C-alpha cells in the first residue's frame, strides 16, 4: 500500500491562512503541512471553512492573510491558472457543450499539447478511471458515477502537483459513494499524487485519509491520522465528530509516563493518557468499548431504549453518571429489552481522559 | 521565499519609453487617430521642455525598466504604485498639454493603456483582484470608460449649472431658475404627464399581461407581438401618427368629424402617444411577474373555498403588486426622458426635455440647459433609486421564463372577456396608428390632397440615403462594441469580487436612468473642448450609442450567466486556461443567444435613438431620426412618414433575423432586456 515515488508530487504548506467575508471569519489562521504524495482530508461540520480553505489553495478565492506554498514556490497571490493544481468539483462542472473526450482534453488543448500525445493521454486516463468507450458522449448523457469519473479523469490528465476534491461524492448514492471513494484512494496512491480532500462525512474521511484535519468554525481543531483522532481526540469537539462518544465525569487518581489511573463510578482502570493534572476530569468512552451485562460488577443502570441494527444493538442506559450509549456487537446474551437492570463495564482501550478539566 | 523578475514592469517601461519618444502625445483637434510627418514634434519627450511633468513620466518608464531587471520579492508593488502614478500623470499631462489647438493624441491613449495594464498586473499579482491581468485590466478599462463617458458628462452638466464665464458661483443655479419664469409650469407639466402616463400604461400593461398569460384564447400570440412595437419604432413616430389622425388636417378630426382643431397638441396628444409607446414596456415587466407567480398559491386558495374571483382579488393581484410598482416607475422614467413626442406634439405644452433642447438650440444658453438638465436628472434618478432599492433587485435580475410547475388559474370568465375585448380594441387602435404612418408616405399632402404618390419615396432615395447609410453603419459599428462592453461588464460584476464592484455595477446601470437629453448636453459640454475634443465626429455618436445601450447587454449577460454554474469557469481556470480563454471557450459558447440578442437590440436601439444624438449630429454625420424629426417639425409629414416606414421595416427584419438565429425563447428573453433598458 505504499505510494510510489512521484517526481511530480509536491508538498503543500499553508502558513496561518485566514479569510473573512464581511463580518464572517470563514477561515482563521489555518496552518498545515502536507507531504508529497499524501492525502489529507479537511473534515468538519457545514460552514466550518473547508471549501474556502480548498479554494484558497486552488487560487479561486483571494487569501486574506498568511501564505501558501506549493512545492518550493509561494503561490499565495498567483492566479489559479498559474498554479498547477486541479480540482474535482462537487457538481463535477463538466462542460455541457463539449463531449467527454473534449472535456478531458480541455486542459491539454489549453497547453497546446501535440495532437497525438493528447489523444493518447486522454484515452489512457479514461481507461485508468474505468471509462473507456464513452468518449463521444455528451456529459448530460452520463450517469452520476460516470460523470464523477470523467471529472476525476479531467483533473488527473493534467498531472497536477496537487489534486483537490471538494465533496466529490456527495451527489452519489450510499453504495456508489463507498465504491468511488475506494477507487479514488487507490488511484491517488498508485499515482502518488498529493491530494486535499474535503468532506463532512467522517466515515469517508476515516476510510481514505493519510491524515485528517478536523476544522471547527474556521479553525483547526486537530490534525492526525484516523487512528490518532479516534484514539486520542484533542477535545470534545473532535471526539464527538469522529465516531460516537459518551462523555462521563470521572476522577483522575494518578498519572505516570503515558498512563493514568482513573475511576468511573466505582470502577478503577488504567488507560493511556496525555499528562494531565490529578482531580476530576471528563472521560471519553466509546460505546463499543463498554460491556453490557445483566449481572456482575460495574456501573449500575437501566436500559431506556433499544435499537436493533442487525450486526449490533444500541442501548441507551440511564445511570447515576447520566445517560450512556452502548453498542453491543457480541450480543451473547441476546438482545436485552428496555427496563432491564444492567451493569456497565468500561474497557481500557476505549476510554480516554479529555484535556481541559470537566 | 520566491524571488521573481518583473516582466510586466520591464515591458511596460520599454513600451512607455517608445511611446514617449515616437508617438505624438497630443494631436491637432479632431485628428487624434491620424499620424502625420510633422507630428513628431509633439511626442512626450519633445513636449518635456514646456511641461516638465513629461520628465517624470520618462523617469517612471526608466524606473520600471530597472525594476524589471532586478530580482525582487514583491513584483506587484512597483507595478501597482507605478501604474497608479502613471495613470494620474498621463491624465494630468493630457489636461496640461492638450490645450487649443491641440487635444489628446495617440500617445496619450497608448501611455494610459500601458499604465493601466501594468497597474492591472500589480492588482492581480498583489491579490487585490482574484483573477489574472486580463480581468484586472478589463475592470480598470471599463471603470475608466464609465468615468469618462457617463460620470464626466454628468459632472459637466453639474459644473455648467454653477459656472459661467465669470467663474464658479453656487448661487448661479438659483439665479438661473429665478430668471426662468416658466419653471413651475414646465416641472408641473413633466411630472403630471409622467404620472398620468405611468398610471395608464401600467393599467393597460396589466390588462395585456393577464390576457396574454392567463387566457386560453388564440389572441394571446397577437398580444405578445404587440410588445415588439415600441422597440422597432423611433420614439416620435407614434406622435406623428397621432397628428395625422387627430391634428389640424387629421383623418379623424378633420375628415370624419369635420373639425378644425389643434386640440390634440399638448397634454392629450402626448398622453396618448406616450401611453401607446410605453404600455408595451409595462406589459413586458408585468407579464414576467404574472408568469413567475407560483400556481400552487392560487390552487391553495381555491382549495380553501375561495372562488375564482376571490382568489384573483386576494391572491393573484396582491402578488403582482411589486410588478405593478416596477412597471409604473419604469414608465415614469421613460416618460420623463421622452423627447421625440413632445417636440413634435407638445405645442404650447412645454416639458423639461424639450426645454433643455431649446435652451441650447434656440437660446444658446448652456447654463439654463444645464440647470434644467439637473432638475430632470434628479427626478429620473429619484425614480430609479426608488425602483432599485424599494423594489429590491427584482427589476435588475431579469425573471427568467422558466415555466413554473402546476397550472396557472384561468381568469374568471367575465374578466377574461372584458380584458380580451379591451386588448383587441387597443391593438386595433395601435394598428390604425401604424397604418396611418405607412399611408402617410404614399399621399401627396395628408388631409389636403390625398392622391397616391411615390414622390416622397423618390425624394427619400435622392436626399435621405446619406443619413440612412450613416445611421446603419454607425449602428452596426456600435452594436458589437455595446455587446462586448455590456456582456463583459455583466461577467465581471456577476463573477468576480473586487473593490469597487458595487459602484461599477451601479454606475453602469445608471446610464439607463439618465435621460438621453441630459446625456446629450453632457456630451456637448464635456467633449467640445480640449483635451477631450470629440464633438462633430462619428466617434462621439458611436460612443453615445455604446453607453446609452450598454444596459441592454448587461441585462442579457446577467440573465444568461445566472443560468450557468460558476464551477464551469472555475474548472476551466484550474485546468490552466487563462480567464480570456475561459471566456472564449466556455462562457461565450454557453451564452451565445444572449450575445446575439444584445447585438440585435443594441443595433435597433441605435437606429431609433434620438434624444441624445439630436445634440451630437453634425452636417457631416447626420442620422435618420434627426432628419425625420426635422421634416416632421416643418410639417412635411410625407417625407417623415415614408422615412419612418423604411426604418420600421429594417428594424422588423433585424428582429426577425434574431428570432431565426437564436430561437423563440432566447429572443423573448432578450426582448425583455431590450424593452426595459
Ligand atoms: N462567497 C461568500 N460570501 C460570503 N460568505 C461566504 C462565502 N463563501 C463562504 N462563506 C461563508 O464562510 C463560511 C465557510 O464557508 P465554507 O463554504 O468554506 O464552508 P464549508 O466548510 O465548505 O461548508 P459545507 O460543508 O456546507 O460545504 C460560511 O459561514 C459561509 O457562509
Ligand atoms: Mg463546502
What does this structure look like?
The complex is a heterodimer of chains A (358) and B (677). With 358 residues, chain A is of the alpha+beta class. Chain A has helices at residues 50-58, 100-110, 115-128, 144-156, 174-191, 202-208, 226-231, 236-241; strands at residues 12-21, 24-34, 39-43, 65-70, 73-74, 85-88, 162-166, 194-199, 211-216, 219-224, 246-256, 259-264, 267-272, 279-285, 290-293, 299-308, 313-319, 322-328, 341-346, 351-354. Chain A has 2 domains: 12-238, Rossmann fold (3-Layer(aba) Sandwich); 244-354, Nucleic acid-binding proteins (OB fold (Dihydrolipoamide Acetyltransferase, E2P), Beta Barrel), CATH 2.40.50.140. Chain A is 23% helix and 36% strand. The radius of gyration of chain A is 24 Å and the shape is elongated. The two termini of chain A are 41 Å apart. The relative contact order of chain A is 0.12. By secondary structure, chain B is mainly α. Chain B folds into 2 domains: 7-128, no CATH class; 176-668, MetI-like fold (Orthogonal Bundle), CATH 1.10.3720. Helix content of chain B is 72%, strand content 3%. Chain B has 29 helices and 6 strands. Chain B has helices spanning 7-22, 44-47, 53-69, 76-97, 106-125, 133-162, 171-179, 183-214, 219-226, 229-232, 237-246, 251-256, 267-292, 295-303, 308-337, 340-345, 352-361, 366-390, 413-440, 455-495, 501-513, 516-526, 538-562, 566-574, 579-590, 592-608, 624-633, 637-662, 664-676; strands at residues 26-28, 102-104, 163-164, 167-168, 443-445, 449-452. In chain B, strand 5 (443-445) and strand 6 form a beta hairpin. The longest helix of chain B is centred in the last third of the chain and has 41 residues, at 455-495. The two termini of chain B are 51 Å apart. Residues 394-404 and 673-677 of chain B have low confidence and may be disordered. At the A-B interface, strand 5, strand 6 and helix 2 of A face helix 24 and helix 25 of B. The structure holds adenosine-5'-triphosphate (ATP) and magnesium ion.
Amino acid at each position: 500500500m505504499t505510494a510510489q515515488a512521484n517526481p511530480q508530487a509536491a508538498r503543500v504548506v499553508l502558513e496561518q491562512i485566514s479569510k473573512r467575508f464581511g463580518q464572517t471569519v470563514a477561515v482563521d489562521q489555518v496552518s498545515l503541512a502536507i507531504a508529497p504524495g499524501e492525502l489529507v482530508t479537511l473534515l468538519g461540520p457545514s460552514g466550518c471553512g473547508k471549501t474556502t480553505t480548498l479554494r484558497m489553495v486552488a487560487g479561486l478565492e483571494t487569501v486574506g492573510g498568511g501564505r501558501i506554498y506549493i512545492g518550493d514556490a509561494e503561490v499565495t497571490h498567483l492566479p489559479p491558472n498559474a498554479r498547477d493544481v486541479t480540482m474535482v468539483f462537487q457538481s463535477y462542472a463538466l462542460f455541457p457543450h463539449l463531449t467527454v473526450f473534449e472535456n478531458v482534453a480541455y486542459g491539454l488543448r489549453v497547453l497546446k499539447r501535440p495532437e497525438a500525445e493528447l489523444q493518447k493521454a486522454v484515452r489512457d486516463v479514461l481507461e485508468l478511471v474505468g471509462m473507456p468507450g464513452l468518449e463521444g458522449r455528451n456529459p448530460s448523457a452520463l450517469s452520476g458515477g460516470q460523470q464523477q469519473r470523467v471529472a476525476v479523469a479531467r483533473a488527473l490528465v493534467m498531472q497536477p502537483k496537487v489534486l483537490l476534491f471538494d465533496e466529490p461524492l456527495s451527489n452519489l448514492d450510499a453504495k456508489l459513494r463507498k465504491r468511488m471513494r475506494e477507487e479514488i484512494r487507490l488511484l491517488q496512491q498508485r499515482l502518488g499524487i498529493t491530494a486535499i480532500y474535503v468532506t463532512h462525512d467522517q466515515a469517508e474521511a476515516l476510510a481514505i485519509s493519510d491524515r485528517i484535519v478536523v476544522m471547527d468554525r474556521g479553525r483547526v481543531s486537530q490534525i492526525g491520522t484516523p487512528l490518532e483522532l479516534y484514539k486520542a481526540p484533542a477535545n470534545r469537539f473532535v471526539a464527538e465528530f469522529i465516531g460516537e462518544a459518551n462523555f462521563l465525569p470521572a476522577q483522575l487518581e494518578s498519572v505516570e509516563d503515558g498512563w493514568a489511573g482513573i475511576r468511573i463510578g466505582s470502577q478503577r482502570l488504567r488507560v493511556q493518557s496525555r499528562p494531565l493534572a490529578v482531580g476530576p476530569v471528563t472521560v471519553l468512552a466509546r460505546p463499543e468499548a463498554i460491556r453490557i451485562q445483566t449481572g456482575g460488577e460495574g456501573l449500575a443502570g437501566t436500559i431506556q431504549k433499544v435499537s436493533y441494527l442487525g450486526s449490533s444493538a444500541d442501548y441507551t442506559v440511564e445511570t447515576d453518571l447520566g445517560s450512556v450509549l452502548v453498542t453491543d456487537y457480541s450480543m451473547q446474551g441476546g438482545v436485552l429489552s428496555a427496563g432491564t437492570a444492567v451493569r456497565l463495564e468500561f474497557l481500557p482501550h476505549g476510554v480516554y481522559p479529555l484535556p481541559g478539566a470537566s | 521565499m520566491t524571488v521573481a523578475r518583473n516582466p510586466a514592469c520591464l515591458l511596460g517601461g520599454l513600451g512607455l519609453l517608445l511611446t514617449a519618444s515616437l508617438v505624438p502625445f497630443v494631436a491637432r483637434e479632431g485628428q487624434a487617430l491620424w499620424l502625420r510627418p510633422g507630428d513628431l514634434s509633439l511626442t512626450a519627450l519633445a513636449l518635456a521642455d514646456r511641461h516638465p511633468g513629461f520628465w517624470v513620466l520618462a523617469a517612471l518608464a526608466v524606473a520600471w525598466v530597472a525594476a524589471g531587471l532586478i530580482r525582487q520579492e514583491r513584483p506587484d508593488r512597483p507595478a501597482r504604485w507605478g501604474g497608479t502614478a502613471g495613470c494620474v500623470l498621463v491624465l494630468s499631462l493630457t489636461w496640461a498639454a492638450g490645450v487649443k489647438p491641440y487635444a489628446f493624441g495617440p500617445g496619450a491613449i497608448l501611455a494610459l493603456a500601458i499604465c493601466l495594464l501594468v497597474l492591472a498586473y500589480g492588482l492581480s499579482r498583489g491579490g487585490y483582484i482574484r483573477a489574472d491581468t486580463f480581468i484586472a485590466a478589463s475592470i480598470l478599462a471599463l471603470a475608466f470608460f464609465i468615468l469618462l463617458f457617463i460620470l464626466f458628462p454628468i459632472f459637466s452638466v453639474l459644473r455648467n449649472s454653477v459656472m459661467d464665464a465669470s467663474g464658479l458661483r453656487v448661487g448661479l443655479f438659483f439665479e438661473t431658475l429665478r430668471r426662468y419664469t416658466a419653471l413651475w409650469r414646465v416641472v408641473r407639466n413633466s411630472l403630471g404627464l409622467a404620472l398620468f402616463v405611468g398610471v395608464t400604461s401600467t393599467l393597460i400593461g396589466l390588462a395585456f399581461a393577464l390576457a396574454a398569460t392567463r387566457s386560453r384564447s388564440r389572441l394571446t400570440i397577437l398580444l405578445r407581438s404587440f410588445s415588439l412595437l415600441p422597440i422597432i419604432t423611433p420614439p416620435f413616430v407614434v406622435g406623428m401618427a397621432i397628428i395625422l389622425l387627430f391634428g389640424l388636417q387629421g383623418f379623424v378630426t378633420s375628415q370624419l368629424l369635420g373639425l378644425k382643431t389643434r386640440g390634440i397638441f399638448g397634454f392629450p396628444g402626448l398622453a396618448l402617444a406616450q401611453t401607446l409607446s410605453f404600455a408595451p414596456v409595462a406589459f413586458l415587466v408585468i407579464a414576467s411577474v404574472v408568469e413567475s407567480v407560483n400556481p400552487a398559491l392560487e390552487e391553495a386558495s381555491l382549495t380553501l373555498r375561495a372562488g375564482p374571483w376571490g382568489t384573483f382579488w386576494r391572491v393573484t393581484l396582491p402578488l403582482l403588486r411589486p410588478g405593478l410598482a416596477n412597471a409604473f416607475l419604469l414608465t415614469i422614467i421613460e416618460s420623463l426622458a421622452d423627447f421625440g413626442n413632445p417636440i413634435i406634439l407638445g405645442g404650447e405644452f412645454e416639458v423639461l426635455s424639450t426645454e433643455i433642447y431649446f435652451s441650447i438650440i434656440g437660446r444658446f444658453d448652456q447654463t439654463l440647459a444645464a440647470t434644467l438638465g439637473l432638475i430632470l436628472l434628479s427626478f429620473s434618478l429619484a425614480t430609479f433609486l426608488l425602483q432599485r432599492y424599494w423594489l429590491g433587485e427584482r427589476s435588475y435580475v431579469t425573471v427568467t421564463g422558466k415555466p413554473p410547475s402546476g397550472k396557472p388559474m384561468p381568469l374568471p370568465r367575465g374578466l377574461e372577456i372584458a380584458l380580451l375585448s379591451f386588448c383587441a380594441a387597443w391593438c386595433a387602435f395601435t394598428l390604425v396608428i401604424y397604418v396611418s404612418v405607412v399611408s402617410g408616405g404614399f399621399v401627396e399632402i395628408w388631409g389636403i390632397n390625398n392622391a397616391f404618390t411615390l414622390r416622397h419615396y423618390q425624394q427619400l432615395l435622392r436626399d435621405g440615403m446619406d443619413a440612412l447609410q450613416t445611421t446603419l453603419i454607425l449602428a452596426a459599428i456600435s452594436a458589437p462594441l455595446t455587446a462586448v462592453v455590456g456582456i463583459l461588464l455583466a461577467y465581471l460584476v456577476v463573477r468576480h469580487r473586487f473593490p469597487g464592484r458595487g459602484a461599477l455595477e451601479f454606475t453602469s446601470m445608471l446610464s439607463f436612468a439618465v435621460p438621453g437629453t441630459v446625456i446629450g448636453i453632457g456630451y456637448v459640454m464635456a467633449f467640445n473642448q480640449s483635451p477631450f475634443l470629440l464633438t462633430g465626429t462619428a466617434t462621439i455618436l458611436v460612443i453615445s450609442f455604446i453607453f446609452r445601450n450598454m444596459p441592454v447587454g448587461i441585462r442579457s449577460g446577467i440573465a444568461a450567466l445566472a443560468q450557468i454554474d460558476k464551477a464551469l469557469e472555475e474548472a476551466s481556470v484550474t485546468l490552466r486556461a487563462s480567464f480570456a480563454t475561459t471566456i472564449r471557450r466556455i462562457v461565450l459558447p454557453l451564452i451565445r443567444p444572449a450575445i446575439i440578442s444584445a447585438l440585435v437590440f443594441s443595433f435597433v436601439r441605435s437606429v431609433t435613438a434620438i434624444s441624445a444624438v439630436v445634440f451630437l449630429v453634425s452636417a457631416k454625420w447626420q442620422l435618420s431620426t434627426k432628419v425625420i424629426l426635422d421634416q416632421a417639425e416643418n410639417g412635411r409629414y410625407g417625407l417623415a412618414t415614408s422615412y419612418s416606414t423604411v426604418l420600421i421595416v429594417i428594424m422588423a427584419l433585424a428582429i426577425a433575423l434574431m428570432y431565426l438565429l437564436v430561437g423563440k425563447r432566447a429572443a423573448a428573453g432578450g426582448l425583455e432586456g431590450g424593452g426595459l433598458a
